[in-house]
Each structure stands twice: as structure tokens, then as C-alpha cells.
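One record is set out below.
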Amino acid sequence: MVAGRSKAALNDWLVGRDQSLGDRIRVVTMDGFTGCRPATAEALDKARAVMDRSLPRHVAAEKLTLCRQRV
């Protein structure tokens, strides 16, 4: 977790790490935040970005609960 939910904050954190760390990262799991993808693509060009499956499930379950509560 990086303080400051922005592309610049994540990019600065990634660039500030040792290069050997970036070379070992193969997969980056992220949420739907739009700044994540470009920041990781710039700093970790060899890593594959994948969506965290738990976030869409959580959002869908929350919406379903709200719908049930209205009925």
C-alpha cells in the first residue's frame, strides 16, 4: 500500500525501490483505480497487470444487498 492514491505517488514509490525488486516482479494485482495501470506500466514494463477479483465481487454484493433492502 502506498500513501497518496495517485499515479505520481505509486510511480515515485516504485522508482524509489531497488532495480532488482522491479526485475523480480512478474504480476501486479490491482484494483480499478485508473492511476495504477499507467504507473506500473512505466516502472515495471515486464510485469503483467491483472485485476483483483475481490473488488468487483465486493461491489456487486454491496449493490445486491442495497437492492434487497429496498424490496
Q: What stands out?
A: The longest helix spans residues 54-70. Helices lie at 7-16, 19-24, 36-43, 54-70. The chain has a mean pLDDT of 80. The chain has four helices and two strands.
